[in-house]
Amino acid sequence: MLERDSEMFRSSFHRQGVHYNLYEIKGGIAALKSIFPDGKANEMNFALFSTSGVHGTYTTIEEIEVALQKYPDGPPEDGGDWPDDYRRAELTVLIIQPRICCLRYGTVEVTAADIPYLKTLRETSWLAVQQIGKGE
User: Fold this and answer.
1) Confidence check: pLDDT of 25 > 70
2) Taking the CA atoms of the chain, what radius of gyration do you get in angstroms?
3) Can you tell me the distance from the alpha carbon of 31 to that of 106, in angstroms, rounded to the nearest whole number?
4) Strands 90-97 and 102-109, bridge-based pairing
5) What is the DSSP letter of 85?
6) Are strands 102-109 and 21-25 parallel, antiparallel or unpaired?
7) DSSP string of 25-50, one letter each residue
8) Whether 123 contacts 49, CB under 8 Å
9) pLDDT value of residue 5
10) Are 44 and 98 in contact (CB under 8 A)?
11) How many other C-beta atoms are found inside a 10 Å radius of the C-beta of residue 41?
């Protein structure tokens, strides 16, 4: 499958094609929805969240949800008790596509409207991973 760099994803190796490649997520939630339109993962495409590493933070969906409920317009000017590592309501994501040996990583800025979608994707990803390698 030939994939070129786009507004959604950029190859970390600066090469075309998804097989054996690593992509940075550039398109936020829209990029996730391009792979998981209904928020449902399967054994060929699933996601992990709050993976941090060199590309984000350990902030969870629930921590972002609480912060967005308390501060729907973002952190207060004086910082208030808005957590330091929430700079914005960013969630670290790692999309795994094991059949084509492709990883997609990065952070996505989250709104309150995205929370149900992300929770569905997390739950279905967990279920999908548990089925990998299991026989009938």
Assistant:
1) yes
2) 16
3) 11
4) antiparallel
5) G
6) parallel
7) E-SHHHHHHHH-TTS--BTTBEEEES
8) no
9) 60
10) yes
11) 23
Output the six-digit token pair for 11. Answer: 């190859």
The one-character DSSP state at 1 is -
pLDDT interval class at 119 (50, 70, 90): very high
Alpha-carbon gap, residue 124 to 119, rounded angstroms: 9
Sheet holding 46-49, edge to edge: 9-11, 21-25, 102-109, 90-97, 46-49
Let me know: does 37 contact 14? Beta carbons within 8 Å: no
Lowest mean pLDDT among 9-18, 52-61, 96-105, 123-132: 9-18
φ/ψ bin of 85: left (φ > 0), alpha (ψ from -120 to 50), beta (otherwise): alpha
CA distance 91 to 57: 7
Cα 59–Cα 65–Cα 66 angle in degrees, nearest 5: 95
Where do we find the tokens 């979608």? 117
pTM of the predicted protein model: 0.84
Average the pLDDT over 25-48 and give the result. Answer: 96
Contact 47, 129 (CB under 8 A): no
